[in-house]
Amino acid sequence: MSSATEQKLITLAAARFGVPSDGLNPADDFFQKLGIDSIQALELLSDVEMEFDVEIPDYELEGVVTFSSLAEQIEKRR
How far, CA to CA in Å, does 59 sit from each of 37, 64, 73? Predict the structure, then answer.
């Protein structure tokens, strides 16, 4: 069962990178699944921070590669 935050993240990422959201799952490594690099990940993070009205320091994103782990970081800030 995925959280509302995870679903919103998946929808946001799918829209940014033009992929179908129904092919993405919370446990997916978004670098691999979306085929993105670190610059594109920063663009996604910018979208995420605006959408969720949070600011996540770079050091807290070390090792964060799944939608579920990113959702956890967002939840900590809300």
Answer: 18, 10, 11
